[in-house]
Write a structure and sequence with these properties.
242 residues, TIM Barrel, 8 strands, 41% helix, globular, EC 4.1.2.4
């Protein structure tokens, strides 16, 4: 999906529908999650993404108002046993999650243990049934290009629905347009590509989409979407803007 397709650029509403509106801070409270949901509804995002212990969310506050519910698994280190990840995913689905974002074992990827990486994903896939979405977080900033490609191939082979750049918690950093492009090229439309981690402005978000992201993980969604209003102001004053 391109931000500047042959038909029209993404507008505010279309970009919002690519967003997983995210709150994964360890100190987040139930009140914070309720506020996230209300903000997500107001912004018109695709989903809210919260920690597993915050599930279930009130169906009347989410699905009945057009929001999907996403959560994370093996987060943020990915160093959990595969059966623990699988159980966590199963429990989250039972608690109402529509989508699960799992973290691979990054050490296994750095060692080139791709059979292990694939088996880890397959274990979680078995707990995320048809009709529910599995995203695989590869922590792309900590991988070289070869490792990014192999991690994406493992996700394809294991039956994932998306590959995702980052947890947003790794010191190596978050999403980059280079990683998103490489991931998109590797999965070749067979999987979606989610850019997350460090996407803080409208320019960041549009660049990620331009380079192949089909979903965005944002914690500062309101600020990103406010860029459309700032761009309108710049245009009205004769500036470039968006």
């Amino acid at each position: 999906m391109s931000a500047t397709s042959a038909h029209a650029p993404l507008d505010r509403a279309a970009l919002a529908r690519l967003v997983d509106h995210t709150l994964l801070k360890p100190e987040a409270t139930a009140a914070d999650v309720a506020a996230l949901v209300e903000e997500g509804v107001g912004l018109g995002v695709f989903s809210v993404c919260v920690s597993p212990s915050m599930l279930p969310l009130d169906a009347a506050a989410t699905r009945e108002r057009g929001l999907a519910v996403a959560t994370v698994c093996g987060f943020p280190s990915g160093k959990h046993h595969s059966d623990v990840k699988a159980f966590e995913a199963e429990r989250s689905i039972a608690a109402g999650a529509d989508e699960v974002d799992m973290v691979i074992n990054l050490g296994a990827a750095k060692e080139g243990s791709w059979d292990y990486v694939a088996a880890d994903i397959e274990a979680v896939r078995a707990s995320v049934p048809d009709g529910k979405v599995l995203k695989v977080i590869i922590e792309s900033a900590a991988l070289d290009d070869h490792e990014i490609v192999e991690a994406c191939r493992a996700a394809v082979g294991a039956g994932a629905d998306f590959v995702k750049t980052s947890t947003g918690f790794h010191p190596a950093g978050g999403a980059s347009t280079h990683a998103v492009s490489l991931m998109s090229e590797t999965v070749g439309g067979r999987l979606g590509v989610k850019a997350s981690g460090g996407v803080r402005t409208l320019a960041d978000a549009l660049a990620m989409v331009e380079h192949g992201a089909t979903r965005l993980g944002l914690s500062g969604t309101a600020a990103v979407l406010a860029g459309f209003d700032e761009g309108a102001g710049a245009r009205s004053e004769g500036g470039a803007g968006y």
